[in-house]
Design a protein that fits this description.
seven-stranded mixed sheet, Aspartate Aminotransferase, domain 1, lyase activity, single chain, 415 residues, PyrdxlP-dep_Trfase_major
Length: 415
């Protein structure tokens, strides 16, 4: 599943666009690099867009953002502080901040979420005495981490359900083999950023406890779940024994993640972090960007979620009014500020239509498309962030109409 930064998520082939200026650097005659450079240039020049992923920015812009963060009225950081060395200073401050936000005893900063998750599951396997993890087949652990839980940590997975939705309590109770850890991705990204209802989540956790299992939340995007659940971060995290969160997905950071939980678990995780090569000499840029994201983006996420529902409804109505043979906005009412769009055209056509729309109108509506199923049926992920708040439903409709007009032109050309 392509993400909103023009690539695939970490781990399963390919990377994400770094935002470097390949137009200036040249493409060396490589058509793939040329196409990527064209996309980046078109997106970057767009005056109207639903989101501006930091991975599509230029280096100078990111440096300016960090400098601005140092001069902001943030309570946790300032330019007069020293850089960190092996996790002290600003990194330790970030760990304290995350632990407090999630209501956990402690937290540890990790350079990647993949490392944080593998170590969390490894630690729980040692404590529960079983290497079996109950996890959804569409979860990040299964789809985007190259089987790290198996090949690196020696664990084994049992599927919670084969349905493209979060598991139910009954399914957890009925699993036909013991498991030590239940890993729940909130939201379940590759199923459409889906979340259970609050009572359903509580029941699933209780079912795992009945099976004598611990519960780990893959909360890379947990920050934006509060609106759907109607609960604060601390109350959500309290259901789990450990929680992983990301700093670069919803918070617009540079990189990095945190694992939060009991002090003893976090201490053990830090020891394994060193063994896994995650004891990085200096990480102050990533920590600074994460703290800035907690100050700037975290309070805004509920407004993004609310506006995502406006954008999703406008898109659904625009596709119907335009007479598209088949389309799907999934879920119809987004659970977070991200959702899927499905259209009955080749991904290459939709990619080209999106780039032409950006080049010709300086409006970016959709980014990359993929065909995970039958050829000619493509999907993309839509992220609604701060720039989207300026869009009315009519603006979305107009952009969708302009996009579809270019799709039809391309289909005639291919004709």
């Amino acid at each position: 599943m392509a993400d909103d930064t023009d690539g695939t998520d970490s781990g399963k082939g390919g990377g994400t666009d770094s935002g470097t200026d390949e137009v200036a650097d040249g493409t060396g005659g490589d058509p793939e690099r040329a196409a990527r450079a064209r996309r980046l240039a078109a997106w970057h020049a767009s005056e109207r867009t639903l989101a501006r992923p930091s991975a599509n920015g230029r280096i100078a812009e990111r440096l300016a953002d960090l400098t601005a963060a140092l001069t902001a009225d943030g309570p946790s950081y300032g330019g007069d502080g020293y850089v960190d060395v092996y996790g002290d200073g600003i990194v330790a401050e970030l760990e304290r901040r995350v632990a407090a936000l999630l209501g956990m005893e402690a937290a540890a900063f990790f350079p990647t979420g993949t490392m944080a998750q593998q170590i969390a599951l490894r630690c729980w396997a040692g404590r529960t005495g079983t290497p079996v993890v109950a996890v959804h087949p569409l979860a990040h652990l299964e789809v985007h981490e190259r089987d790290a839980y198996l090949t690196v940590s020696g664990l084994r997975a049992v599927a919670t359900t084969r349905e493209p939705r979060p598991p139910t309590a009954e399914e957890i109770r009925d699993l036909d083999e013991p498991f030590g850890t239940l890993a729940l991705e909130l939201p379940l990204r590759d199923a459409g950023f889906l979340l259970p209802e609050w009572d359903e989540l509580v029941a699933v956790v209780e079912a795992a406890r009945e099976r004598d299992a611990v519960v780990h939340f893959d909360g890379a995007r947990l920050w934006e779940c509060t609106a759907h659940f109607g609960r604060g971060l601390e109350e959500i995290a309290a259901l789990a024994d450990s929680v992983y969160v990301s700093f670069y997905k919803s918070l617009d950071g540079i990189s990095g993640a945190a694992l939060a939980g009991p002090e003893t678990l976090v201490a053990e995780a830090k020891a394994w972090r060193h063994r896994y090569g995650g004891q990085v000499f200096q990480q102050w840029p990533a920590a600074l960007a994460a703290l800035a994201g907690l100050d700037r983006e975290l309070p805004r996420l509920p407004s993004y979620v609310a506006h995502a529902r406006v954008v999703a409804e406008a898109l659904r109505k625009a596709f119907t009014a335009a007479g598209v043979a088949w389309s799907r906005v999934h879920p119809e009412v987004p659970h977070t500020h991200q959702f899927q769009v499905w259209l009955p055209y080749p991904a290459a056509v939709l990619d080209e239509a999106g780039v032409r729309l950006a080049e010709e109108t300086r409006t970016t509506l959709f980014r990359r498309w993929t065909e995970p199923g039958p050829p000619g049926l493509a999907t993309t992920e839509v992220t609604v962030a701060s720039p989207a708040l300026e869009w009315t439903a009519d603006d979305v409709t107009a952009a969708a109409d302009a996009f579809l007009a270019r799709v039809r032109e391309l289909m005639k050309e291919d004709g």
